[in-house]
Amino acid sequence: MCDWIDAVGAKTAFIEPGSPWENGYCESFNSKLRDELLNGEIFYSLAEARAVIEAWRVHYNTVRPHSSLGYRPPAPEAVHWPSRRRGSAPPQASALARIPVMH
C-alpha cells in the first residue's frame, strides 16, 4: 500500500504504529486514560468496565480542569433552565449566581 501511494505521488494522514509524536492529542489522552483509570482498576465484567469508563469519561470531559484551557473543563455541563410559558418572567438572576466559575 505504501509503495503504491508513493508511486502515484499521493500523501496520507496515516500515523505509523509506534509514532506518538505524529498524534499528540490521542497519545496524551491515551496516557491519561491509562494512568488515571486503567492502571488502578480491575474489571470483573464488561458491564462494570463500561460503567466505570463512562463515569471517568464524563468526569474527564465535564469536571476535570485542563491546564491548556485555563484550568476549565473542555465541555462543562450545560445549565438547563426550566421551560417558560409564554408571557412568564425569565429565570431570576440569582440562578446565575449558583453557576460555578472556574478561574
Structure characterization notes:
- It is a single chain.
- This protein has 103 residues and is mostly helical.
- The protein has a domain at 42-78.
- Helix content is 41%, strand content 0%.
- It is built from 4 helices and no strands.
- It is extended.
- The relative contact order is 0.06.
What are the key terms here?
extended; 4 helices; RNaseH_sf; 103 residues; Integrase_cat-core; mainly alpha; Transposase orfB; nucleic acid binding; 41% helix; RNaseH-like_sf; single chain
Describe the secondary structure blueprint for this structure.
Elements: H1 2-8, H2 24-36, H3 46-62, H4 93-97
Class by SSE composition: mainly alpha
Distance between the termini: 50 Å
Give helix and strand order, one letter per element, not per position: HHHH
Number of helix segments? 4
Please give the share of residues in helix: 40-55%
Low-confidence stretches: none
Total number of strands: 0
- Let me know the average pLDDT: 76
| Main sheet specs | none
Domain Integrase catalytic: 1-81
Pfam families: rve_3
Region (Disordered): 81-103
Protein name: Transposase orfB
Short description:
This protein is mostly helical and 103 residues long.
